[in-house]
Amino acid sequence: MSLTSQKKPPQNTSIRSSSGKRPKLRLGRWLGVFLLAIVLIVAIGAPWLAPYNPAVTNSSATLLPMFSEGHLLGTDQIGRDILSRLIHGARFALFVAISPTIISAIAGGIIGLISGFFGGWLDAFIMRVFDVMFSFPGILLALGIGAALGSGTKSMIIAMVAVTLPETGRVVRGAVLNVREEPYVESAKTLGLNHGTIIAKHVAPNILNPLIVMSSLQTGNNVILAASLSFLGLGAAPPTADWGGMLSGGKDVMSSAPHIATLSGIAIVILAVGFNLAGDMLRDRLDPKSNLGTVRTVGGLK
């Protein structure tokens, strides 16, 4: 029988991965991006989207239920419009979630780089300091620092940085320990390049992926941590629209106005879930173990 007369195997038009398995749809990951986009749009458009000034009180319209005339989501104990406070609270929630992450990524990244690259007594000292900080539960450490510094946005951010910095530093240190043993780093040392050049050109670019993934996941945790501190009275001072503060105020009137605490709690969950799902997507895309074909070379050295 000629080759031309042989039947061709049926072609499968479905997309498959190189391993032959059908790729899974990451709809949940894109849901996180969608939720973050919604919160970001609301935060940016707060001055135009909010029907009222979130700080204005109205003693004649307190604890109005949802779908009241002129107040879609009702009012709180002192007559402030809840919808307006939720919309403006998105700005504060994003700020206190992202700011500590950026500070921790910069400070923890530098500390982790120095510790992992140079090693020795300096590495041992930094790790022991981190061990001491890790010995305290994160919320207790944040509460202690917040109580010592007093309530306020600045104190909250400092407390959150203290909680998140050790973990960031350790992740970066672990990545540096792997990278510094790579042949291209050893080649750079053989060529006589100084430590600063090696770190800047060959080490730092190759630890960005784990740092980005760590920071994105950490931001979701910061949403919950910030809300916890505000709930316990260590957040922003009134009349700042703060979801954690709204949750704290709403717990006192749960029997008569459960919508106050419920709506603010839902907003906190949406933002935290959005950051966590987006962080999972970044981890899937940037994890070198799942992207073996995207090995990067830096400075011409493999």
Walkthrough of the structure:
The chain has 302 residues and is mostly helical. The chain has a single domain, classed as MetI-like (MetI-like fold), CATH 1.10.3720.10. Helix 1 packs across helix 11 and helix 3 packs parallel to helix 11. It is elongated.
CATH superfamily: MetI-like
CATH class: Mainly Alpha
**Could you name the CATH topology?**
MetI-like fold
* Helical fraction: 55-70%
Q: Look at the structure and give the mean pLDDT.
A: 84
Largest sheet: none
- Counting helices, strands and paired strands, the structural category is mainly alpha
Distance between the termini: 51 Å
Number of helices: 11
CATH architecture annotation name:
Orthogonal Bundle
Beta content comes to under 5%
Bulk shape: elongated
Structurally, the number of domains stands at 1
Would you list the SSEs in sequence order as H and E?
A: HHHHHHHHHHH
SS elements, strand count: 0
Which stretches are poorly predicted, pLDDT < 50 over at least 5 residues? 1-25, 290-302
The Rg value, from CA coordinates, equals 25 Å
Which properties best describe this structure?
11 helices, disordered C terminus, MetI-like fold, 302 residues, mainly alpha, single chain, elongated, disordered N terminus
List the helices and strands and how they pair.
Blueprint: H1 27-44, H2 46-49, H3 82-118, H4 120-134, H5 138-149, H6 153-179, H7 183-190, H8 195-203, H9 208-231, H10 243-250, H11 258-286
In short:
By secondary structure, the chain is mainly alpha-helical.
